[in-house]
Amino acid sequence: MKNKKNELIQMAILIILGIAMILSSILPRIRIHNTLTELLEVSVIIREEDSSLWFNTRLGMEQAAEELRVELRFLTLPQANDSRAQIRLLRREHAQGADALVVVPADSSQLIAALTEQNLGCPIVSMESQADWSSPFIAPDNAALGRELAMAALEDWRGGSILLVNGCRSSTGLAIRAEAAQQALLQAGVRVQLETAEKEGELRQLMEETDASGVIVFEPALTEQAAALKESLESEQLLYGVGVTTAAAAYLEKGTISAVAAWSDFVAGYLAVESAVQQVKGSQYQVEPLSFFVVRGDEIYDPKYQKLLFPFMS
Q1: What is the pLDDT of residue 10?
Q2: What is the tens place of the pLDDT at every residue in 114-140?
Q3: pTM for the structure as a whole
Q4: Mean pLDDT of the region 96-102
Q5: How many CB atoms lie within 10 A of CB 246?
Q6: 99 and 280 in contact (C-beta within 8 Å)?
Q7: Could you tell me which of 167, 286, 255, 169 has the C-alpha nearest to residue 216?
């Protein structure tokens, strides 16, 4: 009887050990599966064909993605400002399972029309220009930014006209900046030439042919291009732009660029992903316009600007 009781105890122990072994192999898989299913997919589609200008913005996005459990896809266009390609990419990313989309619209009106025609059914966050009037919008106050650039140019103005160059006429954000700068300059009695340079060679032609004493551009890509052209043409025109990329910072230090309007790209990227996540979760999420400042060459390494412009510089 005693032996039979011992046998039953041993069998019970073996059964318990067996169940423990099975659970130990299954539970990690369950945890991994749950972890994977918790990840949100967010696709970011900018309007450029080169993402180098978005380096700090992407760092902010990646920081938010790590903290908020997001799988991030960062996509460029085959050709800069190709609105049709951008709309196709948005539709493709949604069809392939993206939970939310972040977009820098190449053509705001076309994008709004496309989204009106076919509601993708997932949250969309826009940067620089609004893609949907009801969706979160990550950008500075574009009109205020344009006016402040004009004010910076007026501080240095000693006569003559000022050339304003928009690199993407279909971007409402850039158009608002250009129009606000134009209005401020005209009110100050300055002659203004407002042009668009979307194709290769157009900016060079404008800068070669104009008699303007100053040039204002409204986006980082055109700021770098204008600075390089100013040096190659040995131009005396004063130049004002947007954004402090690595190249723009060097041009500011040398005095090639007189001043730029800038904000924390890192913060902008973080807010874009955070806003997308909150929208997926159904939370109410209000985004204030990004704070910006106008900085000159002797100010870029000022402590109050350095951390914003170069977040990972020691």
Answers
A1: 56
A2: 888 888 889 999 999 987 666 789 999
A3: 0.85
A4: 96
A5: 12
A6: yes
A7: 167
Structure tokens given for 295: 């900085």
Q: How far apart are CA 65 and CA 141, in angstroms?
A: 25
CA pair distance 241, 154, nearest whole angstrom:
14
Altogether, the residues listed in the chain come to a count of 314
Tokens standing for residue 210: 């104009």
pLDDT digits (tens, 9 = 90+) for 75-95: 999 999 999 999 999 999 999
What tokens were used for 251? 């041009």
**Which run of H or E residues covers position 186?**
helix 172-187
The answer to whether 260 and 300 are in contact (CB under 8 A) is no
Cβ contact 178:242 at 8 Å: no
The neighbour count for residue 36, using CB atoms within 10 Å, is 9
Q: How far apart are the first and last CA of the chain?
A: 78
